[in-house]
Amino acid sequence: MEVLQAIKTRRSIRKYKKDPVPQEELEKVLDAGRWAPSASNLQPWKFIVLSDFKVKEKVAKSLAWGKFLDEAPLGIAVAADPRVSSHPVEDGSIAAYSILLAAHAVGLGGCWLNPSASEEEVKEILGIPKEERLISVMSIGYPAEAPSSTRKELKDITFTNRYGSK
Amino acid sequence: MEVLQAIKTRRSIRKYKKDPVPQEELEKVLDAGRWAPSASNLQPWKFIVLSDFKVKEKVAKSLAWGKFLDEAPLGIAVAADPRVSSHPVEDGSIAAYSILLAAHAVGLGGCWLNPSASEEEVKEILGIPKEERLISVMSIGYPAEAPSSTRKELKDITFTNRYGSK
Hints:
2 copies of one chain form a homodimer. By secondary structure, the first copy, chain A, is of the alpha+beta class. Chain A has a single domain, classed as NADH Oxidase (3-Layer(aba) Sandwich), CATH 3.40.109.10. Chain A has helices spanning 3-9, 23-34, 53-62, 88-105, 119-126, 154-157, and strands at residues 45-50, 74-80, 109-113, 133-141, 158-160. In chain A, strands 1-2-4-3 form a 4-stranded antiparallel β-sheet, with helices on both faces. The first copy, chain A, starts with a helix and ends in a 6-residue tail after the last strand. At the A-B interface, helix 1, helix 2, strand 1, helix 4 and strand 5 of A face helix 1, helix 2, strand 1, helix 4 and strand 5 of B. Strand 5 (158-160) of chain A pairs parallel with strand 1 (45-50) of chain B, so a sheet runs across the interface.
């Protein structure tokens, strides 16, 4: 799928088919996360693939807006280590978006489930060291819905040379 | 350009040709930022296109690792408003990466210049309100270099169901 088209047509998918995600497709998606840029190329991230239903169920219960995670065939959690990079949130977020875009490109769908309200709880479930940050948990699978979305107009969010000037 | 290929072949470009960036290409790139996902689709971002040499020069002087910004035909700054979204760093970072990927897809190159060490100074130059965050300043132009890059192996950064377990 072409880049600009992929960026514009990617949607947050919350309903999934039962079909499993082939290992080959999963690896393409993780590889996209691996090739994301990071500050000074320090790559402070770890990706945790959630395939065990019990693990997905526990994480789903902890997430305020991610109750559907246990209905997705897979989850992917992105942790980032502030001891490795001083920009773990930027780097981890970019890796997560790279994963979501690649998922869309290979026909999968995903949704970023924000863990911040229960970050410590989910870290404990997944065994993520206390020193690391949990940036994103994503549900991944073949879409069983095709939601639409909207964005603000470009003219309303773009300035030239100075904030506020058109 | 195909998504997975674009993600893997995008590089941080620090040397640029003198050729100007056509308005049409700039709009494609900004549009990619506009279509990035954000928490609850709140789109807390503003994009400031830096085309005035004096503005680019001032910002370049303020950035610890972005001295080459004034040699790029364009800059794009991404601001994000914590009053609009509780996740301005995640959202702004994703929009910036969307812009960098789209730039690569249309044959341009860019480099994320981290403003954090001089965030307040650059915000003042660009007139960004004190309440907002400056997430990224990017240099944009046609590449005059083709740098290589490396990443950690997937097996060394990926776990299954639990941090540390293969």
